[in-house]
Structure formats: C-alpha cells, structure tokens
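Good morning,

Attaching, inline, the backbone tokens for the sequence recovery test we're adding to the shared suite. The designed sequence is right after.
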C-alpha cells in the first residue's frame, strides 16, 4: 500500500441539483481526448459523493489518482457532485447528505490511514504567487471545491492520537 498523507476535496464542477454519478465522471475522464474527454486510463477520483449523500468508489485507493497536479502520489481524492450554481458560477452546493457523506468518508479514511496529516480543497494547492504562505482567492487556479475545506475538517484531524 502506498503512503497516504492527505485527502483532497473536489467538486465535479457541475450545476447544483443535477445528479451525476461515478459512471458519468468515469466516462468524462476515460473518453479519448479527440472525443472531448481527458483520455485517462481510469476515473481520477477515489470517491464520489452523490447528491443524496451516498458514496461511490472510483479508482481503487491502492492506486495513485489523477486529481491534483503534484499531489497525487500521497493523497486520496474525494469529489462531491456539484460546485456550480444554475449560472455556472462557483458555489458551495453541498446538500446535507453530501456534507454527511464527505465527513463519514473522511472519518473512515483517517481511522484506516493514521498517516493522514492534511485535509484540504483542490484550490488550496494553487501556487503561492506572492509568497506570503497563504493561498489567497486571487491565486486559485480553479475554485474547486467551492468551499473552504481546511478549516471545516481540521477538527477531524485533532481527534487523532
Ligand atoms: Zn478539483
């Protein structure tokens, strides 16, 4: 098993209320580039959290994902469906079910992989352009996951031995 140091939260960048599944994302990620997909060998994320809060398994955890450039080797990627409002603007569209689904998944992972030190959102791995040690909103490469994951999930790591 590879060493897991962090969990990275993503959104599917799809409009709120539209219930895509693991199967849809797998198709977007594995469709050849010439046909508009990413052309990858497998879905990029390890877990997908649907609108109703149910959690689907994507790429097996043992395998390195494809979801955050430079941070894939030691991380697990969780993606909730949504992240855009009806005008395609970034928005925290998580349903109550999705909040529970993400949190339950995180708790299970932290218990299973005590080496996890960090839970952040995709945007938190953008480059620190002005070098002040804080990734500010103007530095975000993308808005994903459209909410501030680090402060929200910090408490889960505090309970660690
Ligand atoms: Zn992302």
């Amino acid at each position: 098993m590879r060493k897991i140091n962090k969990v990275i939260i993503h959104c599917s960048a799809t409009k709120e209320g539209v219930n895509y599944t693991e199967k849809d994302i797998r198709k977007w990620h594995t469709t050849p580039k010439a046909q508009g997909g990413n052309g990858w060998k497998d879905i990029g994320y390890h877990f997908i959290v649907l609108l109703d809060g149910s959690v689907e398994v994507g790429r097996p955890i043992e395998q390195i994902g494809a979801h955050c450039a430079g941070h894939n080797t030691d991380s697990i990627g969780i993606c909730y469906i949504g992240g855009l409002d009806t005008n395609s603007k970034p928005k925290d569209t998580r349903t109550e079910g999705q909040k529970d689904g993400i949190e339950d998944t995180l708790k299970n992972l932290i218990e299973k992989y005590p080496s996890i030190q960090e839970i952040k959102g995709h945007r938190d791995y953008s480059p620190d352009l002005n070098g002040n040690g804080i990734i500010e909103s103007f530095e975000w490469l993308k808005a994903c996951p459209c909410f501030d994951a680090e402060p929200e999930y910090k408490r889960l790591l505090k309970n660690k031995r």
